[in-house]
Amino acid sequence: MIVSLIFRYKAANDLTRGKKFSKLTKQIISAVRSNNKITNPALNPELSSILSQCKLHQMPKSVIETALKKAALGTGEPDQTLCYGSLVTPQNIALLIECISDSPNRTRQEVRLALKDLGYAVTDVGYFFEKRKKGRIVLAVDGNDDAAVVEERVMTDVLDYNVEDVSVYRADEYSDSSKTMAEVICLFEDLMKLKETLEKLQYGIEEMETFYDSVVDTRVELAAEYQAEFEKIISTLEDLDDVSRVYSNVKQSS
Description:
Blueprint (H helix, E strand, L loop, with lengths): L4 H10 L2 H17 L11 H12 L4 H13 L6 E9 L4 E9 L2 H15 L15 E8 L5 H11 L5 E8 L9 E8 L3 H10 L3 E8 L15 H12 L4 E6 L6
Antiparallel strand pairs: 1-2, 2-7, 3-5, 3-6, 4-5
Helix pairs in contact: 1-8, 2-3, 2-4
């Protein structure tokens, strides 16, 4: 799965505002230039998901527009998307480290050195992760229905799509909000059609992204005694300039 919400938001909050915007700018440019310079998010799922993250992190509209213009006017080869793996903590938790780089050799060296300083190494983790990306949409659900009722309603509304999972939680588990949230996991190719359907049904879309999922049989529970170490590893890796996202095979908390 994606690194759990608590870990992901903590890592994001540890980044300076400017550094986070710099990473998002790089992702916008890469999403446009690697998809035939398509700047219309309705036709570019990767871009649409990144713009959702920009909204989540309150990135100024002017900065987003500048990044889109730069992407559309750019020449030469686009930056490369690279993935590196590692097994960390005494539990051998698998990490997939996604990077965007104009210099693969530099990026590999930076990731390798960061892992070495933490006591780990770059390792093949292909067995732990699915080969194709999936889509994730987080919805804000109106009303005070309990989780089972909300889950059934959302499942009924997305029945026509290849939805793999729907989970419901209270936003106050992760923030000051008291909203009821539903997380929908789907195939990448269904992401935009599913988003359009949910918007027509007047769901409030809080977040959308694409991600690499872990293979179900490889997922592990993170032991409490390794939580601090795991958080440090994620924060260290996410602080690297070329690292865009970090995925793990840690099970989501229920």
